[in-house]
Amino acid sequence: MTLLEQIQHKINNKTKPLGALGKLEEVALQIALIQETLTPNLVKPHIIVFAASHGIANEGVSAFPSEVTFQMVLNFLNGGAAINVFTKQNDIELTLVDAGVDHDFEPNKKLIDAKINHGTKSFLTQSAMTEDECQLAIEKGKEIVKNIVKTGCNVIGFGEMGIGNTSSAAVLMSKLLAIPIEDCVGKGTGVNPDQYQNKITILQKAISNHAEVSTDAIQVLQTFGGFEIAMMCGAFLAAAEEKMVLMIDGFIASAAFLCAFKLNPEIKNFAVFCHQSEEKGHLLLLSHLNVKPLLNLDMRLGEGTGCAVAYPLLKSAVAFLNEMASFESAGVSDK
Ligand SMILES: O=C(O)c1ccc[n+]([C@@H]2O[C@H](COP(=O)([O-])O)[C@@H](O)[C@H]2O)c1
Ligand SMILES: Cc1cc2nc[nH]c2cc1C
């Protein structure tokens, strides 16, 4: 029997009707395959939140001003954000990264300084980053994950904070999947109908101003991305290389995943899609990746909160596989 057949056999022989644990069975199979074992375990769960400022945020595409990005980083450092609460609740380690926030933070041992620049340029008229900045952000993301692997962690989620980043994510999705931008744009932090129309117009203009940009993932990321998105892209690539279980959060995280997937499609085998965001493009993005998310709680926060609330489900998947009796061991008739 192949390992896949052995794991499936183990799942099927648990004391339950065939398939009765639904998606938990798929997750258990996936985690066992990632770890190449019939007895997987989840060690030192960790969520990394990458924060960065966006030049495009100054074009009226968000309901909130750009300063909220650095203000929320301070909130993360003080333990007051949703991701602080949910990681604490579920015993998940939290690491914060300044990927490129337009603010000079006091040195703080809880904040990794990976600042590429003080925010990206507005991609309405310029490239968001230089080629070097984009490469550096990807490399930093990889390096941060490689350091976390050394702690023994084998399950990792990524979150982001960046006012304006639903605009970046929407354009990445539109360019990389050849989907009209209108189908990729949502309300983000909650723009009103007029602002929503303006957001679409701005992003259409941005795309036509960069008509020369191909569908190459790095070129698209450099032109329309954010430092947190590029860093997350590198982080996904490194985490999959390390054979970790990857927890994927909402719309922006999925757009970063899409960039990484275009660079290495193998990473999908390591990815658990934690939730379906309320953000308009997310369902379409997930369906293009041909994946089903675990939860739909109408969340649209980011920060890795979808990963943090879904993590107990991964624990349940591993626990049933390791701890449930089989029909044979429990003396239960299987037909
Ligand atoms: O994760 C999501 O699906 C998600 C959906 C909508 C908004 N967000 C968060 O809101 C911010 C981006 O929204 P906006 O309107 O400024 O583009 C950014 O900080 C994200 O973390 C996140
Ligand atoms: C307050 C606030 C918190 C956030 N967390 C992630 N994105 C956010 C956007 C806003 C506006």
List its salient traits.
5,6-Dimethylbenzimidazole Phosphoribosyltransferase, Chain: A, domain 1; 47% helix; single chain; binds 5,6-dimethylbenzimidazole; six-stranded parallel sheet; globular; Rossmann fold; alpha/beta; binds nicotinate mononucleotide; 335 residues
Give a concise summary.
By secondary structure, this protein is of the alpha/beta class. The chain has helices at residues 3-12, 22-35, 67-77, 82-89, 131-149, 165-177, 193-209, 217-224, 227-241, 251-263, 282-288, 305-323, 327-330; strands at residues 46-52, 93-100, 111-113, 155-161, 245-248, 271-273. The protein is globular and about 70 Å long.
Describe this structure as you would to a colleague.
The chain is an alpha/beta fold and 335 residues long. The protein has 2 domains: 3-40 and 321-330, 5,6-Dimethylbenzimidazole Phosphoribosyltransferase, Chain: A, domain 1 (Orthogonal Bundle); 46-313, 3-Layer(aba) Sandwich (Rossmann fold), CATH 3.40.50. It is 47% helix and 10% strand. It has 13 helices and 6 strands. It has helices at 3-12, 22-35, 67-77, 82-89, 131-149, 165-177, 193-209, 217-224, 227-241, 251-263, 282-288, 305-323, 327-330, and strands at residues 46-52, 93-100, 111-113, 155-161, 245-248, 271-273. It has a 6-stranded parallel sheet with strand order 3-2-1-4-5-6, sandwiched between helices. α10 links the parallel β5 (245-248) and β6 (271-273). The longest helix has 19 residues, at 131-149. It is globular. The mean pLDDT is 98. The chain binds nicotinate mononucleotide and 5,6-dimethylbenzimidazole. Residues 64, 68, 72, 161, 189, 301-303 line the site of 5,6-dimethylbenzimidazole. The site of 5,6-dimethylbenzimidazole has 8 residues, from α3.
